[in-house]
Amino acid sequence: MIWAHQGPEVVRGSSFTITCSTPPQYPGGFFNLTFTGSNRTETQVAVNHSASFLFPAADYSHQGNYSCVYETTVSTRNFSSPQSELLPLMVRASLVLPVTSGVLTGLLLLLLVPAAIFLVCRKKRHNQEQVQKQPRNACAMNTYSNRGQTNEDEDEEEDYVNAEVFNDQDDYEQVKEDDSGSEFDYENVNQLQESEDENIYENFG
After folding, report:
1. pTM for this structure?
2. DSSP assignment of the chain, as one string?
3. Given this model, what pLDDT does residue 97 score?
4. Backbone region of residue 111 per phi and psi (left: phi > 0; alpha: psi in -120 to 50; beta: other values)
5. Please, which residues bridge with residue 3 across strands?
6. Domains in the chain: boundaries
7. Is 116 left (phi over 0), alpha (psi -120 to 50) or beta?
8. Burial of 51 by CB count in 10 Å (0-12 exposed, 13-18 middle, 19+ buried)?
9. Residue 70, exposed/middle/buried by CB under 10 A (0-12, 13-18, 19+)?
10. Which of 34, 77, 146, 154 is the least crowded, having the fewest Cβ atoms under 10 Å away?
11. pLDDT at residue 30 greater than cutoff 90
C-alpha cells in the first residue's frame, strides 16, 4: 500500500491489507470494516486489540472509503466504539503491462529492422545479378543467331554449287548425245558416199 496526498494507493491486481486497532481498554472483541462504496462490512476477531483485513487482488471495485468500528461484550453488556475516520483508497492501473508491451515492442523492432535490412540488401544483390546476366544472354543469343545465319548461308551456297554441278552434268550429257548423233550422221554419209562411188565404177566398167 502506498500513501499518497489524497490517501493510500494500490496497484490493480496487487494485494493490500487494512488494519484496525483500538487502545487496550477491553480484552477480546472484534472489528467491523465498513466499505462505504458498497455498504459492505467485513468482521475480524481482535488479536492484541487489532485486526487485519487482507485483499488478495485489488480491483477498481475496491476503490472507495473505509472505516473501522470496534465492538466487545463486558458482563453481558455490548460496547461499540465510534466509527473511525474514513480511509480513502485509490486503485491505479498496473504499469507492468505497458512496460512489458514496450519491452516486447522494442525486441520485435530489434528483430524486424535487421531482417528488413537483410531482405533489402538481398533483393538489391539479386537485381544486380540479373542486370549482369542480361548482357551475357544477349551476346549469347546474337552469337547463336549469327552462327545460325552462317550455317544457312553455307547451306544455300552448297545448294547453289550442287545446282551448278548438276547443270554442268546435264549439259555434258546433252553435248555427248549431240556428238553421238553427229558421229552417226557422219558414218551414214560415208557409207552413202562409198555406195555411190561403187555404182559409178560399175557403170564405167
Report:
1. 0.46
2. -EEETTEEEEETTS-EEEEEE--TTSSS-EEEEEETTTTEEEEEE-BTTEEEEEESS--GGG-EEEEEEEEEEETTEEEEPPPPPPEEEEEE--SHHHHHHHHHHHHHHHHHHHHHHHHHHHHHHHHHHHHHHHHHHHHHHHHHHHHHHHHHHHHHHHHHHHHHHHHHHHHHHHHHHHHHHHHHHHHHHHHHHHHHHHHHHHHH-
3. 54
4. alpha
5. 8
6. 2-94, 110-185
7. alpha
8. buried
9. buried
10. 77
11. yes
What amino acid occupies position 101? Answer: S
Cell numbers 540488401 correspond to 121
Q: Which three cell numbers stand for residue 39?
A: 455498504
24-28: Cβ within 8 A, 24+ apart: 24/49, 26/72, 26/74, 26/79, 27/72, 28/72, 28/73
Give the sign of the dihedral formed by CA 136, CA 137, CA 140, CA 146.
negative
Q: Report in angstroms the alpha-carbon separations of 136 from 36, 125, 170.
A: 87, 17, 51
- Say which CATH class 2-94 falls into: mainly beta
Banded pLDDT at 183 (limits 50, 70, 90): very low
> Is pLDDT above 80 for 70?
yes
